[in-house]
Request: fold
Amino acid sequence: MEISTLATFSSTAHAEYLSLSYRPDLRTVVLRWLRDTTFPEIQLGHQAALYLARHHAATHWFIDVRRRLLVEHAHFSWVVDDFLPQASGLLPNSLRIAYFMSPNRQRIIDSQPELQATFSRSQSLSQPYRMQAFFDEAAALQWLLNA
Reply:
């Protein structure tokens, strides 16, 4: 899915699997995944987030994946290696992502070498974005606010 050709997204198109909002008080786009998702849903949800972020010139994103129990390498790799680098280039400043997850998700990532490598890449300083993982929502939001 090419991200440079953005369409207007209906707020109900992804309501079944994603809660998406902009918090003006935090200048943050909030993505809360509500269930496990298909690859097209992940792509559409991230596209919708980018559309919202561009509309508000928001470069802070809070992504809550606690309700997504499955960790698919192909999906995670697309977000880390394809979508986020391209999205970063379409925003006015450096993109910062607080990745809010469960300890169980971290255990799954740690148990699979290819997921572990992708997770490490997502937090590499060589990326055009900054991502940090959190188990605590308050700490995640504080990290975004201190940017």
